[in-house]
Amino acid sequence: MATIIINGTEYTLPEGERLNAIQAAQRFGIEIPYYCWHPALSVVANCRMCEIQVGAKDPKTGEIKMIPKMVPGCQTPAKDGTVIVTDSPEVQAHQSMIMEYLLINHPLDCPVCDQAGQCGLQDYSFKHGQSVHRFVEERTVNPRKDVSDQIQLNMDRCIMCTRCVRFTREITGTNELQVERRGNHAEITTFPDHPLDNPLAGNVVDLCPVGALLDKDFLHKQRFWFNDQHKSICTRCSTGCNVTAEENRGQIWRLRARYNPKVNDYWICDEGRYSYKSANDANLLPAMYVREGGSLQEAPVDRALDVARTRLKGIATEGGRIAAVVSPFLTVEEAYLLCSYVKGLSESAQLVLGPYPVEGDDVTFSPDQRAGRTGDTSFVVSRPFTIHAEKCPNRNGVERILKHFQGSVIPFDRFRTDAASQPFDALVITGGGHDPVYEGPEMTSLRDAAKFLVVQDVWPTDLAGLADVILSSATFAEKAGCYVNAGGRLQYASAALPPRDGSLPDLDILAILMERPGGGPVSSGDVLAELAQQVPGFEAVSRLEGEFPAFGLPLDDAETPTGGMAVYVDPWHAPRGKVTLAR
Amino acid sequence: MPAAESPSTAPLLNESIREKIRAYIPRYPDKRAVTLPALHIVHEHLRCVPYRAMEEIAEILDLKPADVHDTMSFYGFFPQAPIGEKRLWICRSISCMLRGGDELLDVACKAAGVGGSGQTTQDGALTVEFAECLGICDHAPAALCDDGRIYGPLDETKVAEMIRDVRDPSRAPAAEE
Amino acid sequence: MAAFEPVLTRNFAVEDSQALKVYESRGGYKAARKALTTMSPDEVVQLVKDSELRGRGGAGFPTGLKWTFLPKDRQQTFMCVNGDESEPATFNNRYLLERDPHQMIEGIIISCFATKASTAYLYNRFEYITATRIMEKAIAEARKAGYLGKNIFGSGFDLEIYVHRGAGAYICGEETGLIESLEGKRGWPRIKPPFPAVEGAFRKPTVVNNIETLCCVPHIIERGVDWFKSIGNPKSYGPKLYTISGHVNKQVCVELPLGVTTRQLIEEHGGGVWKSRKAKAAVPGGISMGLLSAEELDVPLDFEEIRKTGCLGLGTAAVTVIDDQTPIMDVLYNTCRFFAHESCGQCTPCREGTTWFYKTMKRIKAGGGRPEDLELMGQLANNMGLTPGTTICGLADGAAWPIKNALAKFRPELEDYIRTHQSPEARPTPLQEAIFQGVSPSRFDTSMPEPNEPLALPNAPGHNPRLTPGP
């Protein structure tokens, strides 16, 4: 146990934790402002914003000796007896001096800057800055440039914290970004014809504490404060990165990485970052459809569901052969309801793992604790980041459920071949992925494999066009529920968008189909609790007490403690209270 | 940002330059440390370090081009566009300034027929630049030619003499190998 | 006191002093042989520690003490010889390299032996073209003679020295900047800890020493601690190379006991102030150390006394004399220009502050100076650098010190300069002035509105002097 004194109050830190002053103070709700420091990157102490007064308490005499000069908090270890002062007039004067320096060449273009509202310069300028500026000389105006097709660098807004440069050197190891020249003329740049195009490139935009690095995909589209922030899970691959989905006016505007040391650390890949676009796609199914007189007719939700339910029930009663394709884009709750529904219809029903794209091999970035880094790296906890080749969020979870219901998993390709020779009486197909997968002759051949075909998806695919009933379901953004990532971690994603007109979230569709008692919308929590009681591999959920853990729930192993910071969000990204309109 | 100089795929650095660079590798525990020597070698041969050369240095040293450019651009020594056969620095630091160094830079530029510091004569023979202290303050106000010749104390007449001297190939010290 | 006998420069006047033969004929490499064959590394360290040799590069840190910071259980050590002597007006290291390269090599051999370093990098600034050539030749010669390479003097000690050329960056004279530059990166100084002695070049324990410091080592071995401590002043022992430049008749480099005064240097070695003028001020040891006023020219130039004048330290002992016809503003303009050009750009206060100084000085020189500029510069200068703890390295202190000293010692002259050098077109624009005052200029009324009441600001340095109540 280490006792540290912050602004005159004693706090205790658990033994063996290597924290710096910023991290230690943050534990106890005291904010030391900073720009260049980031827990995953080398400490360079170049912005000088986090300077504090530091001293040590003599354990024997109790005497406190302060270091006469100021010290950056990012390079000050919080050890037993460390004394930290973060609010003295000296520290405040220093902070206002740094703000004055940083704003010398910074344009006052907050009204047109995308970072406004979550900007380190804005926040600290308000908190630590001053309303006058004593610099009356000519300002340096640095140019605006592109560092890649996707990312723009407004160099005039840059404060040279070098977070982005360190990211490409220390995390991705791709070294695209560099500093050019020195002193007041230094700039961030790329080498000609070597753009910042690594698979994690977009993270530099999240990392940038000011509005210098900007994602052109989001540029000038929305003001940050208009967007509702939803805690979501990226469904692009089976890593299950934690993301914040920003929504406004029924659209997702961007995804940002959300800290989870057990899964994605502070990062997301670009593929995941831009995967939100499928949720805004204009071609998503606009309604539910029922085949009438040989052609598909748009149908009200209740009618479409009714037709599907009645027909399936009828086929089951007649002893028909039934199969269901369980998409790995379904949440575990949805997969569970689908399986219990189909198995409830017919004990002999076949459950098939739905198709999902596999692209190349897994790509892992393994930042080293020391290699490629500079200075004291003992505060850095380096964790690998993997982009999985398996481009679906829940293969792991769906397989667990399939194994419970029928003992084994039937792969989709085998099912397709078998079904061609031995057609079924009814087939329920689910989708809901980022891309339309049920396309082309291989997929449309499934039409001949079933007398009655229900397609529950978000895309108007070739196969859906041949179905008897199309149930318009939810994109990843429109539903809430849990996914099990490749590492067996159960994570909850909340819904970021309401259901589209004419659609229902899969969970509700299935509850209605199976005439689940209780009526009304189904809570994913209730279903999860139910499935945890029954399905092996989900016992950890039943053992859970209190809230669902912030970093998800490992289903197979015990949770290991997290090194470094328990919670991390840059102060300028943290919500600072609600905006209320003046009356 | 300017694009890489040439679309040609032929290497800019010939084998002998590459060999010279590689010869430095055993001196250091890390290849990256050869960056500065490599830049010096390239600069001696090409009188500049263009982007293409940086890419090739990066290849030899297992680095990324941006690493080499990052290092190169930090230092004042390496020009990206070719400079003259001789490079002349006029010192503007305190000892020289006190004795008129600041004014002599303009005089030297005029004498050499260039528009200002950092420019090269039309015949490509001479580049005149300012320098922050050349460490030859015993000659202040002083100038240094990049073949090692030191000039100073300078005055207006001596600047003209100096320019003539630097431009005269017969006066240059024997090149070292 | 016995007459001072120069040792560091003893070979300078000898013909062909760069040749190994000549150096040996004058007793060269005896000290190295003695150290390597009769002493243990720890004994050498102890001897240097006892001599109280202090680093000649600027900070005056005790050399022997620095060596003891190396971890005891280290496997590999690097020696970096700091020849990036870029402090303006300093050229004593160039003399040592050009005129007696083997003394340098001998110093490196002994110091590497003491610190168990088997590789030494001599980081030479690129401007020392001749010195680099001479050093490379001398190293080859020494290597051929068996003084470098494997098993030197049969002691089992191996050493290679490589010359590493810099490329024009003042900051590479800072020890961690030098290490970064040696590693092939931009010369951005590193944060400390870890100190180079623990984790330096290539992440191995590293010693960074100045050229002149290492040149002293052979003489300490040869003549002993008592000899060394008989020279100079308390806490500042040994011989020192002083350079004198600026407004003197003879700009020279001389070896003298530590503690000589500026006046002695000017009169006895510099041939007096040029043009029969008087000295108004002097820079004691490179411009980053600050300024001495005419009254302070009799202060001994050693590590301790000089600080009492408000200067940062002895620095490189490069004395620059400023005559009474030169405005101090010109000197400040020059130093501000230098530091704005040489700031590495890493730490915010230095990157922005040095350029701020330079731009302000440029305006004042052009005739746009305002009386409040001096106060503002003083406030900025007081809050930047290693001393207040706001930067990683000491470059910002060097930028701030001449300003602080000039304001303390020459303020009336500076104020007078601003008053008498006025040209309205160089003044800040009304908009800039308005921002400075914290008021918005109206679009319709061109006269500046007066603020109704002073803005509430934390009472802290670094604030608008007009709005902050005085002491």
Write the layout of secondary structure elements.
The complex is a heterotrimer of chains A (583), B (177) and C (471).
Chain A: E1 2-6, E2 9-13, H1 21-27, E3 51-57, E4 64-66, E5 71-72, E6 82-85, H2 89-102, H3 120-128, E7 144-146, E8 151-154, H4 163-171, E9 177-180, E10 187-190, H5 203-207, E11 213-215, E12 228-233, E13 242-248, E14 251-257, H6 270-273, E15 288-292, E16 295-299, H7 301-317, E17 322-326, H8 332-345, E18 350-353, E19 363-365, E20 385-387, H9 395-406, H10 412-421, E21 424-430, H11 441-444, E22 450-457, E23 469-472, E24 481-484, E25 489-493, H12 506-513, H13 524-534, H14 539-543, E26 553-554
Parallel strand pairs in A: 1-6, 17-18, 17-21, 21-22, 22-23
Antiparallel strand pairs in A: 1-2, 3-4, 3-5, 3-6, 7-8, 8-11, 9-10, 12-13, 13-14, 15-16, 15-23, 19-20, 24-25, 25-26
Helix pairs in contact in A: 2-3, 8-9, 8-12, 8-13
Chain B: H1 15-24, H2 35-46, H3 51-60, H4 65-74, E1 86-91, H5 94-98, H6 101-112, E2 119-120, E3 126-131, E4 143-145, E5 150-151, H7 156-167
Parallel strand pairs in B: 1-3
Antiparallel strand pairs in B: 1-4, 2-3, 4-5
Helix pairs in contact in B: 1-2, 2-3, 3-4, 6-7
Chain C: H1 20-25, H2 30-38, H3 41-51, H4 63-68, E1 78-83, H5 92-99, H6 101-115, E2 119-124, H7 129-144, E3 149-152, E4 157-165, H8 175-182, E5 206-210, H9 211-229, E6 232-233, E7 236-237, E8 239-246, E9 252-257, H10 262-269, E10 279-283, E11 292-293, E12 318-323, H11 328-342, H12 348-366, H13 371-382, H14 395-420, H15 430-437
Parallel strand pairs in C: 1-2, 1-5, 2-4, 8-12
Antiparallel strand pairs in C: 3-4, 6-7, 8-9, 10-11, 10-12
Helix pairs in contact in C: 2-6, 2-9, 3-6, 3-9, 5-6, 5-7, 6-9, 11-12, 11-14, 12-14, 13-14
